[in-house]
Write a structure and sequence with these properties.
single chain; 265 residues; alpha+beta; Jelly Rolls; seven-stranded antiparallel beta sheet; 24% helix; globular; binds fe (ii) ion
């Protein structure tokens, strides 16, 4: 079972994210990549990358959330509760979740979000500006798992290191999306500072990220479809905790092991 070292926990506390290399079973990643082709946009050919360039043709869009296809996004959610998907991601991450949040303090994950794709922008695509945001739904940390190679500039999850320490205080609630007066300005400043880390990697790599970390789903200038499987860990008593304000200790709801790691300031 995977476990984090003290230094990895320190990095996570300091920066709000952590990239784990080769954390997932390669066979399960390959199976997920294969299943993506159950029901693709009709003009997409599995072995021809030239057919994968977005946006999805209007007549091939699908508004149905179970296999949503529109513009440069293709979200194959239907398989999110299949046992192999649960084995692949939460199955590999549960030990770390126990370590970070405390034994049995989080809701068991019975469904992941499915395979989230960002289509290639094409060879002539103009570079687009970056922006950052925090997510609005209540959770403690998220996982972005790559099930295929994601090259640099290939739509990898982009994070603003250390921004969780600012954004933590920018909400009225510890978990809910109740934005305070400084959130927007801080988000704009982080985006314009351009101090971000665009993650990339190989099948089986996982990005763990704190729920108040600034991030974006970045642009895909590669020739590949960016394929990521996502899930979020949520505390069982989040309904009670979200009534609380952020407070001075941003690790108050985390495990003793996390709280004991010093030297992250
Ligand atoms: Fe987001």
């Amino acid at each position: 079972m995977l476990r984090l070292t003290e230094n990895q926990i320190r990095f996570f506390k300091m920066n709000g994210y952590l990239v784990l290399r080769e954390a997932l079973d390669q066979r399960l990643c390959a199976e997920a990549c294969d299943r993506l082709w159950d029901d693709p946009p009709p003009s997409f050919k599995k072995d021809d990358p030239d057919t994968w360039v977005g946006p999805i043709k209007e007549e091939e869009e699908n508004p149905d959330g179970s296999n949503h296809k529109r513009s440069f996004r293709w979200q194959y959610r239907k398989i999110g509760d299949e046992p192999f998907m649960i084995d692949m991601l939460p199955g590999a991450m549960n030990g770390i979740a126990h370590q970070l949040l405390g034994r049995d303090r989080f809701k068991p994950i019975e469904r992941v979000r499915g395979i989230y794709c960002t289509l290639p922008y094409g060879p002539d695509a103009e570079r687009k500006p970056v922006s950052t945001h925090c997510d609005g739904h209540p959770f403690s940390f998220g996982c972005v798992a790559y099930i295929d190679e994601v090259p640099p500039d290939g739509g990898g999850f982009t994070v603003w290191p250390r921004s969780h320490r600012t954004f933590w205080r920018d909400f009225h609630s510890r978990y809910r999306a109740e934005y305070g007066p400084f959130y927007k300005d801080h988000a704009a400043t982080f985006a314009s500072d351009h101090v971000y880390d665009q993650t990339y990697g190989n099948a089986g790599d996982v990005v763990l990220w704190h729920h108040r970390l600034g991030h974006m789903a970045s642009h895909n200038y590669s020739r590949q479809i960016r394929k990521a499987v996502l899930c979020d860990y949520v505390l069982k008593d989040v309904d009670i905790l979200e009534e609380e304000p952020p407070g001075n200790d941003m690790w108050v709801d985390w495990s003793e092991e996390v709280r004991d790691v010093s030297g992250w300031e």
